[in-house]
Amino acid sequence: MTDDLPLTHEDIAEIAAILEKSGYRELDLSTRRFRLRVAKGDSSDSGVTQEWQWAGSAAEVAADTARAEADPDAICSPLPGTFYHAPQPGAPPFVQPGDEVGPETVIGIVETMKLMNPVHAGRSGRIGEVLVPNGTLVAKGEALVRLT
């Protein structure tokens, strides 16, 4: 599955290092296959953050749409990797059952090739159930939480 990734971990690390040393605050790189956004942290943070968006083929988009229609209350993983409930070990989870979420609410992160990718709710609702245990390997399109 990692053969589909357009950049290696080393590529991303090099891009982040160049950005960190530059006078720029953010890099937004788009191609037909993916979009990578890398941004410097503010003064209270260290390092950089990154966010991936996969373009995907028409068949993948159709498969994702079919999964969403099969379980419209599920929020699914946008890519394969390890799903984490919290930003770091020992920290409170991003969301818990009963929490209200909006489209931009981060419900967890998926780590892929040492990149931490936020998973946004994508819509408004209330968390009904967290379906995947913390630290679990997930497939692209796998349901992570269910809204009520």
TrEMBL record:
Q: What is the residue range of the signal peptide feature? A: none
SUPFAM superfamilies, per the entry: Single hybrid motif
A Pfam family that this protein carries is: Biotin_lipoyl
Q: Which InterPro entries match?
A: AcCoA_biotinCC, Biotin_Carboxyl_Carrier/Decarb, Biotin_lipoyl, Single_hybrid_motif
UniProtKB keywords: Biotin, Fatty acid biosynthesis, Fatty acid metabolism, Lipid biosynthesis, Lipid metabolism
Coiled-coil segments, which residues? none
Q: Where is the Lipoyl-binding domain?
A: 66-148
Pathway the protein acts in = Lipid metabolism; fatty acid biosynthesis
Q: Which PANTHER family match?
A: OXALOACETATE DECARBOXYLASE ALPHA CHAIN
Q: What does this protein do?
A: This protein is a component of the acetyl coenzyme A carboxylase complex; first, biotin carboxylase catalyzes the carboxylation of the carrier protein and then the transcarboxylase transfers the carboxyl group to form malonyl-CoA.
This protein is called: Biotin carboxyl carrier protein of acetyl-CoA carboxylase
Protein's organism: Novosphingobium jiangmenense
